Amino acid sequence: MEMIKNKKQPNYLLYAFLINLLAGIFAFSWTIIDQGGLFSLAGDFNVQQIPFAMYANDAIKSGNVIWDYSLDLGSNFIGGMAFYILGNPSFWVSLLFPSKYFMYIVGWLYVLKYAFAGMTSYAYMSRYVERKEYAVIASMLYAFSGFSAEALLFYHFHDVVLLFPLMMLTFDDLMTKDRRGPFIFATCINAVVNYFFIIGEIIFLAIYFFIRYMFPNVKQGFRRMRKAAWEGILGCGLGALLLVPAFIFTIQNPRVESDYTGSAAILYNADRYLYILKGVLFPGEVMSDQSCVIRNNFSTCNAYLPMVGLVLVIAFALYNKKHWLTKMLKICLIMALVPILNAAFSLFAGVYCRWYYMPILMMALASALVMDRWDSEQETLMSPTPIQKSIRKASIIYGLIAVGFVCFLLFAKWSDKTDRIIYRYDVFSVWTAVCLGGILLTYLIFCRMGKRRTIAACILIYTFCIGTTAGAILLYQIAHGEDARHIYDRLMTSEKIEYTTPEYRWTNRDNTETLTNGLPTEANFCSTVSGSIFRFYTSLGLSRDVKSPDAPDGLANLVSAAYTFETEERENEDAVQVVKGDYTTYYVYKDDNVPPIGFTYDTYMTETEFGETNMAYRTILMLKTLVIPDDQEAAVSQVLRHYNETTDGEATTAYLKEISGDHLKECSQDFHETTSSFGSTITAAKDTYAFYSIPDDSGWSATVNGEDTEIIDINGFMAVPISAGTNDIEFTYKVPGLNTGILCSAGCAFLTAVYLVIARKRKKKSAAAGKIAAAEP
Fold it and tell me: Quick one: which of 301, 353, 361 has its CA closest to 325?
């Protein structure tokens, strides 16, 4: 804002925004135009990012924000969507439009993200250079890095990339200018935008603080540490409204658990190191179809800077060996190469490299400082200048590494079973040319070129930014993408499917056709779902990671998935509905043998006994008999008899239809659900237990005929005791941690206000004391 108000200086902040905006338009507009105004990519973007944004748009506008039955088998809405989009500024912008227009606006939202990433990174880097145009050029390196290109598949990552420089900027202001307050709000917005990334950002900032502000002056560093810690805590506390319930929800997810033991904690295998090297040599690639080294990898392991690569970074390290930035770069390199240190940025939740955007900002800053120094040394008569010598050495070092990498992959035999680890020679050849060409151009511009060197550097880096990002988009679409018009047609056509029976789910699993339309299903593709769903699949001997496993026999019957829609008409079976679109026709079918959500049992068995059975039939066995915790046997045995295969019959595929049909005798009537509750009426012939295939989260409570009752966990689902006769059963859900988060946010808002008032008064008092001291003779 100070730069904008200063009319005497060129508005480089605006220049940074506009130049990155224009580059984004060039990189994205060709595909948006080609696909009739729509934008799509592939894989996760098409089946997660698009459906999630549309689903959350409708959910928020309809008030369906507590529990959602269409998120897998049912999940906490806040917990399920907090990681993906709930805190993202770009998502809140999309709420200005109806959900059905998201595919029309998402490409332009990407363009805006790149523009703002350029602007915020410029704001941070500009204070370190004298010639501000070099900070503008460096802002393109940051915004259009290989990390951003490779992470295009994950729409929500780019909000983190554009906001992180604000955290660095306000942190520096707090440390050097004692500017209180902005760091609180920068921390808050970064924490809210994604609770996963804020963990890595806090660790990175801690390293940054110790290297830059603590070690040079330890005594002063401790005073600064108190300020930083206090404002950081307030910032995170302001976002507790979202962070607390999201944290409580996420820790139930087994994906957050990971072991690092022995040599695996300190050393990767050889192909992983080659893969890390590829990430600084080659532009961002298609995660599921890489050109070389590792064919399929979703860790976002790329830190390529358009055209210049690491040439200017290495030159900076050679020229400024004791500079704090050189130390930061070295530590980041070590942490990238040591598994357990790399995993620290994700609280040891895997080998993700999704913190690379932070060292990329440091790399872009180093590049800006080299360009700035290079420009200032041009006024001397010395040729080559000291910085040019460093650039020349860096070009040779980086060039030899690149040539060695390429030659090794081309000519060295990898193993007895595999001659080469190049999977796509066409892409490998192009990226090799981009890598080596960028090194050569960088050397020629900064070491050999005469006039108009700055303009040449800007134009060529600009071209590389556009080309590498557009190339990544094209590769994603070619690799496994679907025409955007076909995706949009499926969205609009599936929207016409009628659904008026909430007691039944659907067997379909494609988020595009189900989640966007609020259809509850037996499974879906989402990483952040109720922890009870993971426990359910574990009990069956199956593993659930980012999406549900293939359905075992009997799953549809157990979870009441009676409906399905298909694109081909079945022979000898009438569809209950036919829906036609421009490219797609859906035929809807219903299995009348599937019981609704909520039915009773006559027998039981314990979890220990269940764990000793044949995994192939466990789902059918759960349908046959109530599987209870061992410590509940004393109570349940008073009502149900113990399951005996000889007298009660086998639980195998051959008897599935009979077992499923038996539950239609005592099952839910008048099933109803809201965003915070569900219930039904069950008329029982005797005292028994009513089973509901709804994940058993800690936020649920239940009543039967108005009386509070205990919920029994059934391998991740719920059951309640009911009596002979008519039973009105109601379940109510409260988001765990939501009230605590609200109170915490409110309390921190009050403390922040008090803190800022006190800081303002102290600043005025200090300024007044300074004036008095200056006026004294």
Answer: 361
Describe the crossing of helices 50-62 and 102-125 by its angle, rounded to 10 degrees: 100
Residue 288 has which token pair?
């599921």
Q: State the Cα angle at 668 between 494 and 721, rounded to 5°.
A: 130
User: Is the distance from CB of 537 to CB of 522 less than 8 angstroms?
Assistant: no
> Where are any strands of DSSP class E within 29-84?
67-68, 75-76
Query: What are 305-336's pLDDT values in tens digits?
Result: 999 999 999 999 999 999 999 999 999 999 99
CA distances from 276 to 326, 480, 516 (A): 20, 24, 37
| Angle in degrees, 0-180, between the axes of helices 324-337 and 195-209, rounded to the nearest 10 | 130
What pLDDT sits at residue 775?
Answer: 53
* Rounded Cα distance, 617 and 613, in Å: 8
Whether residue 537 contacts residue 629, with contact meaning beta carbons closer than 8 Å, is answered with: no
Bridge partners, residue 667, by sequence: 599
Residues of the chain with pLDDT under 70: 1-9, 254-261, 379-382, 766-777
Residue 438, H or E segment: helix 425-443
Q: What angle do CA 736, 739, 741 make, to 5 degrees?
A: 90
- The 10s digit of each residue's pLDDT in 71-85 is 999 999 999 999 999
In whole angstroms, what is the distance from residue 542 CA to residue 525 CA? Answer: 16
- Reported as a single tens digit per residue, the pLDDT across 724-747 is 999 999 999 999 999 999 999 999
- Which residues have CB under 8 Å from 752's CB, separation 6+? 181, 184, 234, 238
